[in-house]
Amino acid sequence: MNEITDPGKLSKEAKSRYQKGDYLEAASHYQAAQRKFLELNDRLNAAEMANNASVAYLQADKAEEAYSAAKGTPEVFAELGDLTRQGMAVGNLASAAESLGKEHEASDLFQQAADILSQAGEDQLRASVMQSLSMLQLKTGRQLQALTTMQSGLNGVKRLSPKQSFIKKLLRIPIDMATRGKS
Questions:
Q1: Which of 47, 89, 92, 125 is the most exposed place for a label (fewest CB within 10 A)?
Q2: 3-state SS of 129-176?
């Protein structure tokens, strides 16, 4: 890496590398930007860079590094009162935990992220997190729970995309069938 010392330029270079699919270089640049922001005592941007590095590491199939990069960032965002970024950071930790095979921890973190994003009024982001939780539940053999999780995620969305609307209608079928047999 050539010697860029401005954290903003490092961040732009990282984003460029990420968009080109050079995820490890992107993560390296994001972490360099994180260190520079910390030197400037800019905790918000430092935590943002750490989360970006986490996402880049996940894309590069480096789950341990992704988990390590995101660790501690939700607390920074919570201290600074940024619920949206806090929820996203918890979601990044959840994704990394899932990639590490820590399904129980990932499930708890996805639920925590969804709750925080709900408090922040981020219905689309919450729906995305609930979709990730639902996929994890499917993977771990909890099919009915996965359906209700996905349904719950979509119920909170004010403006459903056509795809989300279609999925929501499809989800009603097995849920209606399951509940009809109980009455």
A1: 125
A2: HHHHHHHHHHHCCCHHHHHHHHHHHHHCCCCCCHHHHHHHHHHHHHHH
